[in-house]
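RETRY 2/3 - previous attempt timed out on the joint model. Re-submitting the same 589-residue input unchanged.
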Amino acid sequence: MSTIAQSLNDGWVVAQRNLIKIVRVPEILVFVLISPIMFVLLFAYVFGGAIETPGVNYREWLIAGIFGQTIVFGATFTGAGLAEDMQKGIIDRFRSLPMSNSAVLVGRTASDVVYNVLSLIIMALTGLIVGWRIREGFLDALVGFALLLLFGYAISWVMAMVGLMVPSVEVINNASFIVIMPLTFISNAFVPTSSFNSFLKPVVEWNPVSAVTQASRDLFGNTGVGPGSDAWSLQHPVAYTLIWVVLIIAVFAPLSVRQYRLSAGR
Amino acid sequence: MSEPMISATGLVKRYKDVEALAGLDLAVPEGKVLALLGPNGAGKTTAVRCLTTLLKPDAGTARVAGIDVVADPATAKAKIGLSGQYAAVDEHLTAAENLVMIGRLYHLGRQRSKARAQELLERFDLTEFAGRPTKTYSGGQRRRLDLACALVAAPPVIVLDEPTTGLDPRSRQLMWDVIRELVADGATLLLTTQYLEEADVLADDIVVIDHGREIAHGTADELKAQTGGQRIEVVLSSPADSDAAARVLNQVAVGEVQVEAGGRELKAAVGDEAAGDLLRVLQAFEREAVKVLDVGLRRPTLDDVFLTLTGHESTTEQTEAQQ
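RETRY 2/3 succeeded.
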């Protein structure tokens, strides 16, 4: 078997194992699904009246931002899952088997896409209830969802490496919160780019979370009069998002596999 | 003579400034059992991890079934079944699912993995719970499953890291039975343990290690000859009788009589005639009017071996930091 085929084959076995956990521990799923609902409702009704989004209802405009944020947070699962496996000696077991070195990570990042698919579905339904609508074609919307999932998948590889480096699950949950909160708040996810001051504006414009949000917002037809910025990244958000996806996977997939190979376990 | 199934030469592994392995040599001939005996932090787990490709040694070589584990870890892994110190089974999967998953990761194929899982569940007395997630299992059941996981691919070499630590006596007995069966089937086995008794029961050959190096090597009988077999322990009513008691014990003791607790407690290793020795000691105490609170025969423990071999107790805290 070629290396890639073996990696996919072994990765599928690992992914199946992770998927069984989704079914056996439904509590996790409940939390995965409740927090996006909460975000949709909080932002729609707390900030809904306070934030100006020219040409479009704020609630409609907001949903793509919530999608973006939730997708990025979803990647934490990858890190937490690996940290837990590490703590419990499961990674040691895997490492003692003649399986592909990348399989545990390939399987984990793949099975975590399922969490993101489920939370996107729930958020979309909640969104429809509070007034979100898909204004462009259905196909465009699907591309928007696919782009979000792809971006989440890329971030999963970053979290995979972090998960293999930290001593416990608690650490990764706290650490990711500290990084992801500012990353998603200093973006156009919740507040239009035009309303940031000149110091933060360039950060917002080139933040990949802004790009993936803008891309799906465009594809859903929720942008209103425009991205509120002339930056290339927001004028070509799909291309800019894809560049980030490729870049992150190209850098972090090999680094994570290396970390996996070297991880001494505990 | 053919090459040993497991061999290590001059293994060295350092963690920061602690030398976990300081030039360890091991050799296990085909079909034999070697016990690596030592206290917590002696380097047992590090040795196991080096031999099973989980850890790269800083120096030395390790070969399993004729394969250099550093140069060709992938091939070596297929020859080794490892059961670690902490039962590393997925707690959300059932026993059967755990075993099938591992079979598939050994590339046995789905059908053969299932058949093999069924076989192992029966052999390890786990069929009754096979359909339940393993988090509902007892410690002993989990360990048995963990061992079963190591055997999925019927590897010629089996490595067990403290297979019975933390188990209750009944589970330990069950585990020993299973391990003995493996050996009867011809597997070559390396096991680590903190219990002299376990090494005695299971192993052909024992290597005692401390601070990452061998401090004694031999069969259980040879080690016992060095450390004495059973020991007589005496607690006196009054330390005033200490000298008289020591004189009596000296007549039956193998090696020196240890005097502790300000002269109130005495310990002496004795030879094969332990019961007769005890009787003679009691009679002599009677004659010399030595008053005792407690007298007993006790099997030697790792501590006794250590005390005899190194002159220090097998304290765990001094080396625990390297874990």
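Chain A has a mean pLDDT of 90. Closing ticket.
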